[in-house]
Predict the structure of Ubiquitin carboxyl-terminal hydrolase.
Amino acid sequence: MSNRYNTRSYKRNTVQHPYTEALSEVVIEEGGYPGGLFNEGNTCFMNSVLQSLASSKEIMQFLEDEILSKEKNLLQAEKENVKENEEEKEQKIISKIDLRFSEKLHHLLSVLNDKYYGKNFTTKPTQLLRTIPRGKNNRDVVLGDDQQDAQEFFQTIITELEKNVNTIFKASGKNGGGDEKKRDGEIKTIKCKDLPKDALLNQEHLDKVGTVYIPSSLIDPNIPEAENEEDKLYSPYKLMTPLDGITCERIGCVECGENGGIRPSVFSGISLNLPSESMNGTLKLSGLLNDWKKPEIIEGVECYRCSLNLLKEHLIKLVSENEDPSTIKTLQMVDTLLSEKVIDEDKYKVLRDDKYIARISKSKKILIARPPPLLSIHINRSCFDMRTFQIRKNNSRVVFNSKLNLTPWTTEFNDLQLDARYPMNRKEEENEEKYKQLEDEDIDYVPKEKPSEVKDNENEDELPEPPVTLNPIKVANTPDGPLTYQLKSVIIHYGSHNYGHYIAFRKLRGCWWRISDESIALVNESEVLGIPGVFMLFYEYDYDVKTEKMTEDLKITKLNEKIEKVMKKNKDTAELKLKELQEQEKERANQKANVENEETEEREGGVLLEQEELEDN
């Protein structure tokens, strides 16, 4: 990766616009500029990811509460239980609990978020990088040699965090909570009455990390209905980090609706592909998310239920012509199997007849069942150029807002429909109609170029200058709610597919900062939302249940109140200074007038004296 890009340190704004002056003053009082990171030789991709993670309160709280605090409690508990060979046993325990990665990550992110007021501060990620094992895959990521480096380094961070969580998990001696059992060797199940107190169900407590329990009947529809709620079966899915959420996938026949149940999966980010037909256009984040959830049609797939129905028609015809006992028995077996909610593959193979196979289309659909506390979105800009037969970068602009309401792309477990002939979420059409314009209504900036004029930034080698004047911070119009997430950071890539430079925009102290390694500038939100070359986006759960408002909005309101007070104070001070200057000017004018009067009187007196002398002569 080339590092020919200009990473000069930007000077603080000196233009004394009233709002800019007040904002700068308030920001300095609140703690000032964030810390920067030195570029240790093509490490901008690491620096941008680390700055983005530092902007997340969920990551910081997770490191403190779920890892470091639990490590301290575990060691303290073991220390108290040691009776013999205390020093030797404690040393053995400490060596087992290796959480250096989380410790160094927490320390580094804390340093980046620290208060430096009006001073510049830059540090290195060296101590953190030393805790990452130098395996084959990690070595390639740390060295960095292509455009995917930021995303790969991000995945490395997640992997190391998961290792630390597992270390805590094993040291605690927990089994995931409750009396979990495997049903027929397939999926783990636990009765509702045995669920732990901290069990996460549906989309409640989206800011929490833990084990989510999904109704087992959604995963295996053949599970018998429970006679009461207490005996209802649930299956556990462990969320390891704040970046983990759960998606649900449904694959089913578009003719009969048959499917094998919902397939839940833990995910740690969404990767969105840019359409190949748009190489330099303008796209919407909402449109890319719609493409992500759009059903994929798989042609020519054998459907067990449709095939059995064909076989049944044939058997009924045979029985009507000749009541052969074996044919009647086979028909009864087919009817029995068709009465099941899902056709068992092994039972189907016994009855399968090559002459009566239904080749149909199946629909593959995915939705988010539980969004993570911190949602990472990767914009995959790699595409195949048919002219050069090489992989190149798609430079299309992606439009996004400061808030993202996830309702159109999510579903609660209770709203899932197994029948593939119908929408996967029974409220899907209602949600789409209600929220389809949210992405557009909240965009309050105009791109610098028209879609046809968007420039290819492969040859840009300087970052744009920071704004001379900062604009008032606005609250986005997107309705508040648990599924409305707040934009916390953006990673931008300048350059081509094989080389370039990464920078981060991140939110801190209510303001947006543009960070290019050690170069930091305070910027307008409109610059963030209008920037080309978006590579990664980080949206965070930000809903305050007590006030039913977004936490960031509350911060902005308080920040604006402080800014208004400072502006009023500065205005009063300026008016007072102006009044003093005017009085001083008036005094100087009076003094000048007095001097001039005295000089005039002296001149006139001299003339009179000369006239008197002439008259006397």
Observations:
- The radius of gyration is 34 Å.
- The chain is about 40% helix and 20% strand.
- The chain has a mean pLDDT of 83.
